[in-house]
Amino acid sequence: MEEPEAVGAAAPPPGLRSVLPSREFLRSRKGQLLLAESVLSFIIFICFIASLAASFMMAPLLEFLLALFLFFAYAFKLNEKFKGFYWPLTDFLRCVTAAIIYFAISIAAVSKYNDGASKAAGVFGFIATIVYAIDFYITFNDLVTFLKQGSSDSPEGHKSD
Known about the structure:
This protein is an all-alpha fold and 161 residues long. The chain is built from 8 helices and no strands. The chain has one domain. The chain has helices at 4-8, 23-27, 29-49, 58-75, 78-81, 87-112, 116-152, 155-159. The chain is globular, with a radius of gyration of 21 Å. Residues 154-161 have low confidence and may be disordered. Residues 25-144 form the MARVEL domain.
């Protein structure tokens, strides 16, 4: 007699695994950076909600949503499916603006407000600034490679030959 467990073990059951990103992406540098950005942005958002500096809560919310979108876009390889969209440039601009915004609101939260939640949001904001700066440095190198690759395939380069 054949065991029913052996038949079910051949194919993984559909369900939550089809929605979750692969382990190889989660172990990659880009996956870890995007996950760290999402988690830090969410923590900062929660801290700003609980603080007197609630007017700053929109920036971490938007950065959380953008980081989460790019996390799933890279995890499901949408960057390979949609070639006409400049993914490295979008990611670079997101990281640069996020680092600048987090740095500015962290200084304001730490210096202007005295409650603990504002101070915590400021400290996590400085950490997020560092994470976004690392990400935009790495993304800048990818962007340069992407642009060099695009310039060699352009029609203007072939006309001069």
